[in-house]
What does this fold into?
Amino acid sequence: MARVEFERVGYVCDPAETVLDCLSRHGVATPSSCRSGICQTCMLRAVEGVVPAAAQKGLKETLQQQNFFLACACVPESDLNVALPDAQAVPKITARVVEKSQLSPSITRVRLDVADGFAYRPGQFINLGRADGLVRSYSLASVPELENFVELHVQSLANGAMSSWVRDGLSSGDSVTLSEPLGGCFYVKGQPEQPLLLVGTGSGLAPLYAVARDALAQGHRGAIWLYHGSSRPDGLYLADELRGLSAKYSNLHYVPCVSRGEPLPGIAQGRASDIALREHPDLKGWRVFLCGHAEMVQEAKMAVFMAGVSMREIHADAFVHAAAA
Amino acid sequence: MTQSLFEQIGGEAAVNAAVDLFYRKVLADKRINKFFATTDMERQAAKQKAFLTVALGGPNKYTGQDMRAGHAHLVKQGLNDSHFDAVMEHLGATLTELKVPGELIGKAAAIAESTRNDVLGR
It folds into this structure.
């Protein structure tokens, strides 16, 4: 009989018993609601073991690939080690700064060396930890197949405790800690002709830079439209790299956007999400990635859904800023 | 053995096809979209899927009590028959758009209708 491990305790499932029923029979309360595989409230993640396909029915591909499953629909066929969805969020993995540079006045690029076995999908995020316990989330801009460092883009915020320290205090050779990679903002193979829309503001470019390069590296042939927005021209960064990439790959279209000030040559004027939707009013069949300013992400999520994108095809990371200490 | 309504309509694949259409109609409807306003659109879409599964006679364990508890906060905000009617309208329009035969739409509508008093807390 299959054994289910949760928070370091093992529980034996009865035949045909689901993970949810097994845990609750043993007095372990995990969230649940419909208990019919629909509402997704009881989602857990398999840290070890094989999840039956039936337990992942209806989940987004990005969740399936991270071994998320529905506890109420999971009758394990072999032993499983399971965890609550957010249990991987504590920074415990040591990483060393190998390079630090300023990509723009407001964006610091940090490249990290992490021990082998840190497996992530380009565009996911990590929680970055400082020795005194300060923790903030940053997206991963690197692509493991292309580079052996892990890259973060840290946007300087007024009174930002972590961002100020990263810009002014952190040096090459210093150690920080990382959580496991988190989130579903990454490219999934299987539909190489599907058009992709990537919209990001500020350091929301980081995951999109990763997703675009990952998609291209995996042979994506459909159009990839990348809109990067900033309120001011000096908030745009990696523009030369992206122009170079779009010269190399004819299906990559890079559109830098600035929302304030005078029009500038080669730069679209307005909000990135507005320009993207104006240029692509019908998004049926597209896959969309939205990253950055929280309000932009929320509004754009609704707008692209109404423009025809299936809910399952929308991948979004809203960057929420911690209250200044 | 005769097929259940859920099987006749096309099972889970039909629900998946219906959920985006249905949710889009609900969000575009000024009469009711305030009840669906949320920052977590994915969770909200999962709820729409649960509703459609129930209406299409699919597997679920929802009870009348669940329906009451799940909508009590909306009843406090003024949820009433007119809003329920609007949702019924969108259910019918969604299934029509998916070319579900009228007779099956009628059955689905009857199931959805049977939850009215629980949803409205009466």
